[in-house]
Amino acid sequence: MNQHASPRRGGAGRKVLIVEGPTDRERVLQILAEPVFVLCTNGTLSYEKVEEWIVPLQQEDVYILVDADEPGMKLRNQLKQELPAARHLYTRRMYREVARTPMDVLAKILADAHFEIDERWLRPD
Predict the structure, then answer these.
(1) What is the C-alpha separation between 14 and 9, in angstroms, rounded?
(2) Distance separating alpha carbons of residues 53 and 45, to the nearest angstrom
(3) pLDDT at 2 over 50
(4) Number of helical H runs and strand E runs in the chain
């Protein structure tokens, strides 16, 4: 599956991960060991983005990973309304941003949500 494809492509049931920024997107793509469509909102959701990107995702397996700051919480709340079945993943407040979360911590967040992770990012417990 092309991870850079339009949200309209693909079949129902594929994994979709929504993040805020391009740095967040690149970091999670380094960690993932399975095909996941990673959608970058650039921090906002206009009416046009909702219609073009979010509405087609309502039959997909959607996860949301945004920053633990005020803009991230605002985006998360908007996404909760648009995609009520989405699963919410959280970075620790001490890191505030997905981009500042250590890679091994991001790997654990994704692994705990049952994503396949590149083994180099997994620490033994």
Answers:
(1) 10
(2) 9
(3) no
(4) 4, 4
